[in-house]
Structures are given as C-alpha cells and as structure tokens.
Amino acid sequence: MKIHLDRTLCDGFGICAQHAPGYFSLDDWGYACLIGDGTVAASDRDDVMRALMDCPVHAIMELDDRRPDDVPPPLNGDEDPAAHLKVESNEAEWGFTR
Q: Where are the transmembrane segments (predicted)?
C-alpha cells in the first residue's frame, strides 16, 4: 500500500499523527507531514487506513496502480465486445437505473 498526503488540504487536526505516528508527524504549526515515501508496511496498514478514514478534510489518499476506468480485456479474442455494453436489457447487472 502507498499513500499520499496533500498538505494543501490539511487543516491541522492531527488525527493522522495520533493513529499512525510512524507515518505522520506535525510541523511547528500543527499541520501534517508524511514521514518517508508513503510506502506502508502490511503490519501498519490498519493504523494508516484508520488515519485515512478519520481525516476530516480527506487530505490522505491511497495510491493505487489501477485506474477506475480500467476494464479487463475479453477472455476470448473471438468474443463480441458489444456483449459487455451497458444497455437497458442488462441494467440490473450494471446497477444503474433510469
């Protein structure tokens, strides 16, 4: 897991430093600073996620290699790509409503 701290969003609540003091410190004015390069050990993941979830201004973000719009390629090259379109006939499968 890798995290990023956007210091421009930080309002200095200090909750992150309470939950994960090995990854966050507070500067002289009480604003958060990230300790290290943002790489989180598996054993510290719960504490860092707690800091991320409890941040009132959402200044901490989890970096992910995936993109939200990534769609896995079809399993078979002969498969019709139109079979995966979101249309009225399969709207329950995709979870959208009109």
A: none
